[in-house]
Amino acid sequence: MTHEPDQVAQRYARRQVGDRYSLLRPEVWQMVHERQRAMLGLFARHGVTDLSALRLLEVGCGQGGNLLELLRLGFAPDRLSGIELLPERLAQARACLPSAVALHEGDAVQAPIADASQDIVFAATVFSSLLDDAFQQQLAAAMWRWVRPGGAVLWYDFTVDNPRNPDVRGVPLARLKALFPQGRIDRRRVTLAPPIARAVAPVHPALYTLFNTLPALRTHVLAWIAKP
User: Does the pTM of the predicted model rise above 0.85?
Assistant: First the structure.
């Protein structure tokens, strides 16, 4: 029987991304800014007024980029934490984040996080890298336990398969609902399909916005999954 975290580590080891996610690329900063605006809109819609008072845990924090964004938005470092499976990525996160941000290494399902200890548990393009349905469910159940009543899971992931990358698969809305059956889901479809974004944004950044006006070309979902 395969162990899904080990499989994830192997999949990441064979990825060759180069500068694909560099903020120097016009399509990347457009995607990031769009997601930030949508995220702030979700916070406002759900009555979040003081980000510095919230405890947020990111599952799959990678090199720390999302946590850095959250710091800039107003979260307090001593109330932010992250879990990362891959030690080399966690080391990069540790190097760039304030020491007050707590970081945990290893399988998130086994992480020492107290139940109902978080206002928000955040996962960005994590579940699309998990190909084992049972492990997806285990991780979702752990995340749900960590969220306090009245808090939420904050979700960002793509919904369609990438035919060029068999190591990932889209997480459609039906699957999201199955992972968090007790949650109240407020979702936004965001992010211009990356192949289109990479083609049009270098011509002129405004083309990202133009093409992104078509909902059918947006491949990701940003969701606030409220816990009653």
Answer: yes
Per-residue pLDDT reduced to its tens digit, 164-194: 888 999 999 999 999 999 999 999 999 999 9
The C-alpha atoms of residue 4 and residue 20 are separated, in whole angstroms, by 26
User: Which domain CATH number covers 39?
Assistant: 3.40.50.150
Place of tokens 């996610």: 21
Pick from 121, 150, 113: nearest CA to 60: 121
- Using the 8-state DSSP alphabet, how is residue 84 labeled? E
CA–CA separation, 163 and 160 (whole Å):
9
Spell out the SS3 assignment of 149-199.
Answer: EEEEEEEEEECCCCCCCCCCCCCCHHHHHHHCCCCEEEEEEEEECHHHHHH
Cα separation, 187 vs 154, in Å, equals 10
What whole-number distance in Å separates Cα of residue 126 and Cα of residue 156?
Answer: 8
Residue 126, domain extent: 24-190+221-226
Helix, strand, or coil (residue 70): helix
Check pLDDT > 50 for residue 225: yes
Q: Domain for residue 216, yes or no?
A: no
Q: Tokens 């808090």 belong to which residue?
A: 151
Residue 25 burial (CB < 10 Å; 0-12/13-18/19+)?
middle
Pairing between β-strand 118-124 and β-strand 56-59 as defined by DSSP bridges = parallel
